[in-house]
Amino acid sequence: MNITEILVQPQAIAWLPWAVQYFFYIGSAYAAAILFLLSYIFRAHTSHYLRSALVLTMSIGAVVGPLALTGDLHQPGRALHFYSNMTPWSWMSLGSLFLPLFSALAILTAWLYLRDDIAKLKHSDNAIAKKISLFSLGDWQTTSTQMITVTVLTCLSGLTIALYTGAEIYVVQSRPLWHQPAAPLLWFVTAFIGAIGFALLLLALFPIPAKANAFTQSDQGLIKRALLVSAILAAVLLPIWASNNASFSLYESDAWLVRLGSLAVSFLACMGIALLASKIALYNRPQLLIMSAISLICCWYLRWVTIMDVQTIAKFDQGPYPYELPMGSAGLLGILGMAGLWLALALAASEIVAIQEKSVKSVKRVKSVKNSTVSQPLKTQHTQ
Amino acid sequence: MDSTKRSLMTRLGALTVGAAIIPVSGANPLTTTIIRNSEAPDRKGQSGKRYAMVVDLRKCVGCQACTVGCSIENQAPIGQFRTTVKQYEVTLDDGSSELQNVKSFTLPRLCNHCENPPCVKVCPVQATFQRDDGIVMVDNERCVACAYCVQACPYDARFINEETLTADKCTFCAHRLEEGLLPACVETCVGGARIIGDIKDPNSHISHLMREHQDDIKVLKPEENTQPHVFYIGMDDALTSKIDGKVAIYDPAGENA
Asked: What is the largest CA-CA distance in chain B?
């Protein structure tokens, strides 16, 4: 039987680009939480710079993500309905509990970790910086037990975010490309690519003079391993994800071949920069920006394809349903706005680290210890 | 790509690594647990009944009177529809003498008021619910318009209403049924193709029809385990699940434009 569609009403895209932004920022936040925990456990080997970049990636993503999420509600003013009508069998409802908890813990972790840096702002000549120093809330020392406890809790909370965001799409049986374990796994592994991308961007925002001597080989090792492992896993998962549907084939669509090909190339590019990571000087701003852009684009585009492009696949008819990115707040403006918000918060927060670090007169450049077996951690209060 | 190649590629994908994880998706408890959310007194509807619709495709001429009738009755925004009639052009390639005989196939679509509605179980605020009489409704004063139900519906029966900015769908015209009236689409159907009624009442017209045509009753996407309650008479299996057909042209381009 030959069937040709004559009159078929296309279904509008229901989850807007806001959803992509949410999963992008919150993914980078929970992945950064895990990487921060690792870097803090091995704080004798990692630098304060990298840890600061990771903790800020985590906390800024945990603030920007939920804002993007409320944008995806067509009735953001009714967000309170989530709490007046708790629904334990709906993953989205569980998410409304998990998400504020994670955001709060992420901010608490970042504050605890950066407290000493905030306190040191009182020595600054800048009147505003002096006022900000009051946010350290006293002169008490943050103990490593406090740090570890809060960071582990934040990590566990981050895992609930990974679980609920993944389960949220996994239970949608009507979309075979979501209703498979490969979909949430792809999101999880690429979240680390996003976290590294944002951390590299933050490193690029920190001022250059103090950075030259601030990094350790372990920093580069962490970036390299996180990027390499997640890019390889993502490259393995992508064809599984794309093949795992019974009623249609993505491979017969030129548009999908281009999308899957672009994703494969972006994973390869991430592997490439991961392999180069040990050769790249982490204080070199152009190199950092290039590495950051590649990994952020990779992480973001995967979410765009798995959320927006998947929605153009018709559930019943042949489709695809047309979608064009609007220029307004439901489209490009929203994407740029969220990126702008992230950048603004990052610029402001990086000053806390930056101002303190300018006073550090430190050790050898990382290049000079490249062949040494002993890492050169930066001297901070957290490394003792 | 021809259909042989296509199915081979699909099977290859499933046979390789995909096959290892398919059983996991089959064990999802959320697809088997039925949630209705009809405990509140104002969510009962007409207890004791179970409304359903039969669409006799042999009588549908694709005039879209139901589409218009529904739009007038329920005031959905222009371009958004609670019900509509999809139209397909069908030819046979089985070597029969009717090879060149092009026929039009019309398929009225609306909410299936499933017995196991996937939209109800994903709603994070319990705004969507199923009344005791089987009608799936949306409390649009509670709805946060997260569009999760729109994603979960395998029939694309739901949409976010551009004017109310909440989830919207066919209600079987519950407000009319309660007054003893027929839904607008049933009322306007020129061929009498749409029949609504209580399937719990053995003497209702719909129960008679379903008994009479029990071998020719089909539902859309039976494999989804949603147990739809819109039943079609005169349906071909090629059109019950995802349609393998040629694409409608949304944006003419290229040399054939």
From this structure: 61
B contact test, residue of A316, A318, A324, A329 with most B CBs within 10 A = A316
Evaluate whether residue B18 is within a structural domain.
Answer: no
* Domain count along chain B: 1
Q: Do A2 and B87 touch (CB under 8 A)?
A: no
Predicted confidence (pLDDT) per residue in A113-139, tens digit? 999 888 888 888 888 888 888 888 888
Q: Is B18 on the interface with A (CB under 8 A)?
A: yes
Pairwise CB contact (< 8 Å): A243 & B16: yes
Chain B partners within 8 Å of A256 (Cβ):
none
Distances (CA, A) of B247 to A104, A317, A322, B83, B102: 48, 8, 12, 21, 17
Neighbours of A208 (CB within 10 A): 10
What ipTM does this complex have?
0.88
The predicted model gives A284-313 an average pLDDT of 95
Q: A173 and B238 in contact by Cβ < 8 A? A: no
CB-CB neighbors (< 8 A) of B228 in chain A: none
Q: Where are the domains of chain A?
A: 17-76+88-365
Let me know if residue B2 belongs to a domain.
Answer: no
Asked whether residue B66 is assigned to any structural domain, the reply reads yes
Lowest mean pLDDT among A83-97, B68-82, B87-101, B153-167: B87-101
Residue-wise pLDDT for A352-374, tens only, equals 885 544 444 443 334 444 444 33
- What's the Rg (C-alpha) of chain B? 20
Angstrom distance (rounded) from CA B109 to CA B157? 8
The two most distant CA atoms of chain A are separated, in Å, by 80
Give the tens place of pLDDT for each residue, B6-45.
Answer: 444 444 444 443 333 333 444 444 456 888 888 888 899 9
Judged by CB atoms closer than 8 Å, whether chains meet at B127 and A15 is answered as no
Q: Residue B99 sits in which domain range? A: 39-239
Are B243 and A316 in contact (CB < 8 Å)?
A: yes
Residues of chain B with Cβ-Cβ distance to A92 below 8 Å are 122, 124, 146, 148
- Rg (C-alpha) for chain A, rounded Å, is 22
Which residues from B are below 8 Å from A248, CB to CB? 10, 242
Asked whether residue B29 is assigned to any structural domain, the reply reads: no
CATH of the domain at B86: 3.30.70.20
Using alpha carbons, select from A177, A235, A186, A241 the residue that is nearest to residue B13: A241
Nearest C-alpha in B relative to A89: B121
pLDDT in tens, A32-82: 999 999 999 999 999 888 999 999 999 999 999 999 998 888 888 899 999
